Amino acid sequence: MRSEKDKMLAGELYRAEGPEIEADMARAAAWMDRFNATVAHSAADCHALLSELFAEVGQGTRIRPPFHCDYGSNIRLGAGVFLNFGCVILDVVAVTIGDRTQVGPKVQILTADHPRDPETRRTGLEFGRPVRIGADVWIGGGAIILPGITVGDGALIGAGAVVTRDVPAGATVAGNPARIIGKA
Q1: Which residues are listed as membrane-spanning (predicted)?
Q2: Catalytic positions, please?
């Protein structure tokens, strides 16, 4: 029998409970307590802290606290990635952010999703869909990236945009829902 964590990581319906999931969430919560305790991390300290929790952290990557995530272990950040204050990443499945991508304050990157059918939702089941953000992307403050989205290299996402569809490489999107308004 597969564990709830195995189902979660496979993007299947799962329950966010059980010893593996609860231990991983507790580990991430303890890490966030330490990471968010100060904004005065040196570059080396920041990289070391991120490397403790995340699946991958490229050289020169920085996150300004406070930062929140579900697990951290499903997050891969390329080299030179920057996340500003107050970012949230719900990483029940993979979140990949490419080299030199800049993320504004209070951006939300969400992989957690829920069944559309109310009967199934009532059972407490959920699932995840991975988010992939390319290299050299700029995401404006307060933007929300919904589950299953891919953002191409060099794209720009306007402040406050709600990204409900994939964003092609080099596109500029804005609005709710985000629409292409030009090329980067």
Answers
A1: none
A2: 114
d(CA 143, CA 109): 8
pTM of the model: 0.95
**Domain spanning 4-183, CATH class:** mainly beta
Positive or negative, the CA dihedral 63, 68, 72, 76 is negative
Give the start-to-end residue ranges of the domains of the chain: 4-183
Is residue 155 a contact partner of residue 172, using CB atoms and an 8 Å limit? yes
pLDDT of 103 strictly over 90: yes
* Sequence-separated (6 or more) residues with CB below 8 Å from residue 95: 74, 75, 76, 89, 109, 111, 130, 131, 133
